[in-house]
Amino acid sequence: MVTVNLGVLHYLVDHIYGACVHRTKLSTPFFSRGWGGSKLDLLERAIKQLFPDAVGCNWPPSVVQPQWKTVWESKTACLREGIFKTPCDELLIHALPPESHTARVAFLAPRFVPPHKMACVVHLAGTGDHTFERRLRLGGPLLKENIATMVLESPFYGQRRPRLQRGSKLLCVSDLLLLGSATIVEARSLLHWLENEAGFGKTGICGLSMGGVHAAMVGSLHPTPIAILPFLSPHSAVAAFCEGILQHATAWEALREDAAQNAEMTLEQVRERMRSVLSLTDVTRFPIPKNPQAVIFVAATDDGYIPKHSVMELQRAWPGSEVRWVTGGHVSSFLLHNDHFRKAIVDSLDRLPWKESLS
């Protein structure tokens, strides 16, 4: 009888999937057009505005009023889709591709339940999640718990994808920072809408992988306690692109050649520059959330994309937060552990008090 180590098997699945998706020539790698030139310098300055020294002066966010249309209704639930102009400031709007200027959301909610007796969680996109469907499937069973789901389509993804971009492979490093910056701004405005316009009794933010990093940032910046749920997420994009499988999907040579226009660099120096740039995404540099007990990380035991130490770095930075481990790799956990993600959402919201009704 052959004994199979399931941990090794899950880890291998990640690497086999990564080899098929990232190491073949069927698609371009990430950042095939380089760093992003002067746009990268502008973004580095803009992103620093999100860090703790500026937190107190950027709330409330820009108001958004989505234009809604009903997709379907049943006896117990309703799905609507909405659009709104991104509330980013002029610097970010100028840097974003035109296709990303209009944001899209899906909103799945119970019917005939007063908003102040419901919770709503905003779900942010992981790498490669171009549609609403997967996140709506995750949130759908939570309707019976009176938990609504709002799904944001990321800039550079879905109908917001630039014409020249293929799939999820961002063309420049600056695009990754742009995607994150705009997602954070838009998610903060949506939370403000849910709390102050729609009147929900509790709110939360969650995301898988890249979406979990953005969710952690949004939650840390929120002025009041909310549920924060990073799933299969690192503490920083450094862990994903410089340590995990995505390092094999990165156009290091193209980045070296782009950098050589100013100074000759070795590949090792290119990697160090990448670490420096992506350190802007280090969530441990962000404030501790208002209620760390309502932060639940769900991580995989054998994740080929996200090192274990990266998960623990953020948990240590936010004392009182909780890490839950599921058995599997990045890919298998994404496919098999939705029930664990839903349980974390319910438990995190249960750790928050209900807001008083304004009616």
TrEMBL record:
SUPFAM superfamilies tied to this protein: alpha/beta-Hydrolases
Gene3D superfamilies: alpha/beta hydrolase (3.40.50.1820)
InterPro entries, per database record: AB_hydrolase_fold (IPR029058), ABHD18 (IPR019149)
Residues spanning the membrane: none
Name this polypeptide is given: Protein ABHD18
Species of provenance: Acorus calamus (Sweet flag)
